[in-house]
Amino acid sequence: MGNRGMEDLIPLVNKLQDAFSSIGQACNLDLPQIAVVGGQSAGKSSVLENFVGRDFLPRGSGIVTRRPLVLQLISANAEWAEFLHCKGKKFTDFDEVRQEIEGETDRVTGANKGISPVPINLRVYSPHVLNLTLIDLPGITKVPVGDQPADIEQQIRDMIMQFISRESCLILAVTPANTDLANSDALKLAKDVDPQGLRTIGVITKLDLMDEGTDARDVLENKLLPLRRGYIGVVNRSQKDIDGKKDIKAALDAERKFFLTHPAYRHMAEKMGTPRLQQVLNQQLTNHIRDTLPAFRSKLQAQLLALDKEAEEYRGYRPDDPSRKTKQLLQMVQQFSVDFEKRIEGSGDQVDTVELSGGAKINRVFHERFPFELVKMECDEKEMRREISYAIKNIHGIRTGLFTPDMAFEAIVKKQVVKLKEPCIKCVDMVIQELINTVRQCSNKLECFPRLREETERIVTSHIRDRESRAKDQVLLLIDLQLSYINTNHEDFIGFANAQQRSSQTNKSQSSAGNQVIRKGWLTINNISIMKGGAKEYWFVLTAESLSWFKDDEEKEKKYMLPLDNLKLRDVEKGFMSSKHVFAIFNTEQRNVYKDLRQIELACDTQEDVDSWKASFLRAGVYPEKDQHENEDTMSSGDTVSMDPQLERQVETIRNLVDSYIGIVNKSIRDLMPKTIMHLMINNTKDFIHSELLAYLYSAGDQGSLMEESAEQAQRRDEMLRMYHALKEALVIIGDISTTTVSTPVPPPVDDTWIVKDSSPPPASRPPTATTAPPIRPPAVRGPTPGPPPPLNLSPAFGAPPVPSRPGPPSAYTGDANPAMPLIPSRPARVPPALPPGIPSRRPPAAPNRPTIIRPSEPSLLD
């Protein structure tokens, strides 16, 4: 196989895979993807095939790779391939893999050189590979051919950038040796996404195809155009070799022979070739694994710590142990009792931040919903006066009364008190519903034992329903107590003598309290036309006399103030596309309420907000509209009532007396209802759960059946114990891997600004030249401060034997005269300030027919 350079990592990664798979987790090491980037026919696909050790990629001239190929290598015992678009079909013949790639490419892009960013996903299972992801990308092109669009270059660049922009992607910038390296699009793209050069490796291909007399030695020695991780030269198979079925092993042997025998590369043959490239990637992967392991160790240790307490509880666990079942039953019932009490009392450790529940919702029922139901009972003023008038006349009968009758007051009061029964019963129902919801929420912790949960819910709910009838009887008894005796000697009752004076005082107090704010809050006006901005949210302020709305809650910019005279409330159906709940305000005299609107539709987020706002409007004297037939009956009967001045005074007096006494009754009922429900329902249920629930559970059935685990709980316990032990094992394995892997430091930065420059540096080849000779080291003499020597204008008449191509230490200078070429820093030589004309240096210059790059650090044969 052709990827033996990476086989050292296979056992290491397999250990990690086993460690994580044993706890049911994926080995999220996120090993880097390897993407090959370069121009068309640069040899990218051949580099990938060398990693796999198989011929499976399409070959040819022009653009061959027309869709990204995401190649996942997976270590396995056998060798086969499968495509994501052909799930379940295994390919053991890699020629068929090539044909399938070609067919799938043509299916999406057509057969006429079209491209597509949709990747082909291929998995190769083999015992000779690492779990890596290799990406074969289309070559960068300049001119569209066939069906390719005009912006083919930009499309391919965008496609490449999607892959190489990821931090976990190693970039192999592939450049053919027979082209100008300074114009390498692959290096420029790599520089854009990896300016530090931490994940870019230069790959020089086609070294065997360079013109005679030229070589890429300076590039491969990282002198000409340096990269932080340097360059690696490879020699791929030619098309003739591929057509002749030359296998990859023979190609690697030929590559090795090429580097050992070539005079320009034989001194660095050990640093060249596909095995060396694989070795570099191997080390890169090893470094990545070592960098990733500390985070994994911390994560596993945190999971182990979280499971430690639960694992200690289950260690030595025996599901059929009677003592364990008894102990667990006691613990479950006790926990249920504690949770129920915490939810009611509001001291729970699990706080619901989404909606009200438990005691908070019951509190809202007591102090918002129940008072709202009482306020809704307040009848219309005209209807009340008409009832009082009828009562006075019916009591007097045929006689004309001189005094205001007490019986009329008592009859009206009793009729109003009877109306309290309905809201009181409704209050009990709402509290019961919330108690049952609380029981269900608390029983969620018993889901491990379905039978126990079912019995607990049934017993407690039955008890609550039993207490319901007693609570309702007690509430009705409170109303009957109020009806049994009308206490006109109550300290808060105004009395008959003060009724008239109270009436005038009430009118004054109402006028003085007109500016008292009843409620503030955000509401949406729902029926503003779209031409005027559509539905809009405003800050509303409701007082006893008016409804105002402002732009925001700072109340600086008032939009409108609407008087409450002749206003009523009306329910509005929620719109088909609207999620808000709506009610409306309208004028009973058919006048416009706001601008050209006969009614204003106000929207809230929830129905509870709507009810709360309606209660506030009721306190301000804005009542819901009645049915049409009730209005007609009221108008027809009201027209027949004729009242003399004496009767009007009597009606006004009784009206004030009734209002005063009903206020006393409402105050008493609002105070007694929460106390009655708390005593008979809530506190009693808490005591029942705490004292009697366990006894009812014992009498309900066999303890063994009650404490029978659900299948999900048994599976969860087994998985937890297995994960606990596997986590400990995984930590040991990771500790071993940390000590057996060795990482190498990242190479130091180099001057790679040449990649983004517009000016083109010299090509990668070394053509012969007859221009200025390279600078050489002059003799050490005394002179001014050392510095780089100036160019010497020496006569070419002084010849010198050729310098051997023996490798030597890096030189401080290169032989090209172009100043844009980056230089490898080294110790400067001391030079004299100048040489007299016509006197040559002690070392003659190089012969004019030699290549331009000469290493002055190598000793000359003439020294």
UniProtKB/TrEMBL annotation:
Keywords: Acetylation, Cell junction, Cell projection, Coated pit, Cytoplasm, Cytoplasmic vesicle, Cytoskeleton, Endocytosis, Endosome, GTP-binding, Hydrolase, Membrane, Microtubule, Motor protein, Nucleotide-binding, Phagocytosis, Phosphoprotein, Synapse, Synaptosome. It is a peripheral membrane protein. One of its GO terms (cellular component) is presynapse. Residues 516-622 form the PH domain. InterPro entries: Dynamin, Dynamin_GTPase, Dynamin_GTPase_CS, Dynamin_N, Dynamin_stalk, G_DYNAMIN_dom, GED, GED_dom. It comes from Nothobranchius korthausae. This is Dynamin-2. PANTHER family: DYNAMIN, DYNAMIN-3. Residues 28-294 form the Dynamin-type G domain. It is found in: Cell projection, Phagocytic cup; Cell projection, Podosome; Cell projection, Uropodium; Cytoplasm, Cytoskeleton, Microtubule organizing center, Centrosome, Centriole. Residues 767-784 have a biased composition (Low complexity). Its main location: other. The gene is DNM2. The keyword Acetylation applies. Residues 651-742 form the GED domain. SUPFAM superfamilies: P-loop containing nucleoside triphosphate hydrolases (SSF52540), PH domain-like (SSF50729). The lineage of its organism: Eukaryota, Metazoa, Chordata, Craniata, Vertebrata. CDD domains: DLP_1 (cd08771), PH_dynamin (cd01256).
